[in-house]
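pasting for ref. prot 1 ->
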Amino acid sequence: MNKLLRYAMLSLLAVLCGTSYAAQEASFDFTSVDNLKTYGVTNPPTENGTGVDFVAFTNQGVSFSTVNGSTPTKYYRSSPDTGDGVITLRVYKDGKLTLSVDGKITSIEFAGNDLQEFTANNGTYSPSAKTTASKATWIGSSASVTLTASKAVQIRTLTVKYAKEGEEPADQKVRLYKKATSVEAGKSYLIVGDKEGTLQMAELFTGSYGRLKAVNATVKGEYITTTDADNEFTFESVTGGYAIKQSDGKYLYAAYDSKNNKYYNTFNFSEAPTSGNVFTVTSNAGGTFTITNTLSNYDILYSATNSNFEGNKDKEGEVFPFLYEFYKEETYTPEITISGEQEFYGSTTVTISPSTAGNHIYYTLDGTEPEECDIPLIYTEPFTISESCTVKAWEEETELKAEMTFTKLEYSVLGIADFKKLEKKAVACLDLTNAKVLYSWKSNNNNVMVFVRDESGEALELYYSTKALDWIPDAGQTLMGTIIMAYDEYNETPEAVVCKDTNADEIIAVDGEAAEPVECSIADVPSHICDLVLLKGLTPEKESYTSGSGDDTFTAYNYYVKENEETFIPIFNNFHIAAYEDETDGAEGKGNVIGGYLFNMDPSKKYDVKGISSRGTINKQKVNEIFIIEVTESEDTGIADIKAAKGLNDSRLFNLAGQQVSKNYKGVVIMNGKKLINK
């Protein structure tokens, strides 16, 4: 298959083999009478409310032609009563405007009104989000572009970037900006936000008021790069702080909303504002800046959700911006770049950047040359690879090439003992073959705790959210297989947490009997962190403390079991088992604790405690503790002395779970701390 046919199939564009192009840029301003004379108009409209018909012309290597719609395309000067008295190129309903070059058009930038009414016959046409779009961009690669109007469209200016046939690519200028740590009067800066690792910079605002739109920045190493200074803001020294000026000479300022008795959180723009244009600038920890308007007291904040900057104060979901100061301008030779983790575990994301925005990239993953491949892949967005490969890329417009080899690394396969020796955040393939699930629990917030013990007797907690890993094995199951997780610690408790490559696809859970606990003394508990343990024959004790603040203070309790006055350990109902929950006299769990199994444990008796050995904090001290699963009276206390209930001072009855029952309850009950048979 020849190249012409191949690329006709891929992009529906006829591309000749072996052609190279040089980057060109042509700008057109239809508001200028003098400019219109160079565009073939002998008598441009000089009176408001008048117009003249458009004449096809060629200028700066770009040819313009039209097909008339409901009204002939014309240059029209509006009346101040219905517009601003400015000349615009107007294409009316069903009219068509065609731009063509000797080469390939790669982008067109429009400024005007109602640009959302245009549709393009090829490429990607993107008007701004406003209802009456004042800006629009076309991106693609074509010798000609035809735009059709669904109703009247006004064009003030447009800039065409194209690749001219028959010449080598020319060197281009690039402006470099580096992250600022302070602000200096007279210097120029980009205002930048961070959207999940993607830097976005504030764009030049062309209207009179609104929010600054954020657009993706081009990042090269530690720098942000641009091909022009359009999006720069200069900080000028004024009394009380700084004035912030756009590249078009207009200043940002705050205006008052008299209807709602507050300042607007949008910005106003003027070449000579009389008030509201003074800002103070303070650097923050982490590299951001607090830029505060001294009149409204609003900060300039970045919203990743809306991809814009506005004036506000402590608004949820908005953050302080970074500033990148102009560093230097460099000449560079256009190139396409491939980026991603060259050595990776699991998977990595590959990004291919064209030499010029809008140029077409074709690539392969099998080592073949894209321009020689019958059906190469078309690059449209970053993609993920999960195997070793060589990515080769080729740019259609310039025939530039790039390649990068990616190598997949294998995680170490570790049992629990070796997994717990990893550095924090280190990732490995955790081998859970024949590991027993000791206990599993999910909180109301969908956080999961799974405790497992492998064949070596080592135990570990798996901690994650079901949003990250939708898998909850049951207590008693035996796990078979491996899972990729990262090592971490919480309150000195070892745990496995999810990472980008975590999934449970390689794990099989087999039903079985409940795990046997490790019977140990309190002194042995620290040797069994995360394990299921059984402590027998211990005496209960509770310790009161005041919780809450102000009118919401209430009495709460810490619970302990002890071997003697010197040896004790806290027990905690971390898994919110209903039988052991405290009962309170306050609404929504607030108020003095008045009951519950743990509250009513008899200090004259012995108890066996089964639960997970863990670490926690009591009175700001790190302590060993037991997350209880089951608490029962020790067998050696027996019920040999059970007798009928007679003459008791406290007639309240409780079942063996510590729950108060009525006098009609039949069976073994507790009254005044003694076991009785209620008949």
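and prot 2 ->
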Amino acid sequence: MLESLTIHQIALIDDVTIHFHQGMHALTGETGAGKSIVVDAVTLVLGGRADRDLIRTGCDKASVEAEFSVSNNEKVHSFMEQESIEYDGSHIVIYREISISGRNICRVCGVMIPVARLRDLAEWLLDLHGQNDHRFLSDPEMQLAFLDQTGAENHSLLMNRVREDCESFINNHRAYARLVKKNENRESQMKSLERDLEELRSADIRVNEAEQLLEERKEKETAFSKSEALDTIRAHLSGNEEGYAALTEVKAASDLLKSISQKHTDFKDISQRCESLYFELEDIAYQVNQLADKFEINPEELDRIDHRLDLIHRMERKYQTTADELPQLTSRLEEEYSTLVNLEAEVSRMSVEHKKTLGRYRNTARELTESRKKLSETFEKKMMKELSDLGMGNTLFRVEFKPNETGRPLMPTQQGDDRIEFMISPNPGEPLKPLAKIASGGELSRMMLAIKTLETSHSGVESMVFDEIDTGISGRMAQVVAEKMLSISRERQVICVTHLPQIAAAADYHYLVQKTTDGSRTQTSVMELGHRERVAEVGRMISGADGITDESNAYAEKLIDAAEDKKKQNGIIS
């Protein structure tokens, strides 16, 4: 239940706090006084569109705060638990702030939440008549959802089964469609896979092979470089194509020095040194020969490595993957090929499963249709009674189940196979027409009031706001509508913006919305009225443009007293 509403800098309102109670409330005031501002504020604080035009001229921001009592509202308790918002278990405070800069703040008990989640919460707090009525009148899906809401637990369980069976079918249908499409190109896919697998298997590329080949190539290049250097050294020491050999030359010099030293002793030392040099060079040449043999490289080895690396790089480019992932690719393609080999059998198996899931859904959907038809019979009778109470006793109301005129089976949906529309014939002899075709504003108002009356019996919402529900109504019908709204208020808190004195007189609480100006600034205020003030306001509503008279005040007093007496007689005094 809405307990208080604080409005700050919205349109013509500076600061207003309105305290509400259990029962029926009436908001009245002259045209243009700002009654709609209060409704706009309620809409805003419950997640409505953040229109910056709502911000009072000259102000940077505006805000609305609403306090609700939620002691018995299990849906709200569940929401608060899901959002991990701490509260006392009996009251919640919602705060909404909008600014010229576009900043939009939503808080529940001080915790910021997205506006979409605020709208989810609002569904269980308050129902505002007027914001979605045009959709309800023209949207058969909303009408179907409303009919489903009138069902008991068994109906809800049936709806859950339909949703589950539909989801099961849709998942199966998508998988089956993919298989069928894949099977259409099965032969060409298998041939393509066979070519790829033959190439991959022939290549037989191993994990880390590329790195190993690069390392091997590096080693062989190093060895080849050493081998070339050693061959050059060996040529210098032992001889080359020109015939020059360091060892031969040193040996000749050593022999000559040795011969001279035998005759001349002063050559003996240098002769021995040259002979030692020869033996040193001879040992070096021996070791160079051994090293050269060790590092000798076959050029074909480098060619083999280069060809292998080239193959790996080509395979990487072709299959858009790394060399190390090629073995895994081979395994995947083998699995895919195996799947294609068994695809026809899998399609056949899936076809059987597809028919089973569709059949299961159709059976459950038919059960739901039968349940809905039973609900519609009860709903039609209740609507006819409500409309009769509202002075539309000759009205015919029907829930029409639309046939499938496509000539094709309907695709399963989570709502089942039914397409319905609420139909009405306000006068005998006239054909049934969709709700949206109702021409009379008074009939439309009473129609929506009848629906809202029935909604109170199964809706978990504790507060209802009616904005101009009495459009097109006057005279005796105004009294009937007032009594009907009073009846709703015994089960739900009702807040009504009205221009009818009969409705204002029937309310338990009366608020006057009025506009004042100091010459430079205009503002709207909201005041809860006492008995005398209330008589004066109802008297103004009765007299209209003629001005308040003693007669209008006297009649207003009678209206209010009569309403109070009727409440006492019916045991519904607040």
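The longest strand covers residues 2-10.
Residues 343-389 form the longest helix (47 residues).
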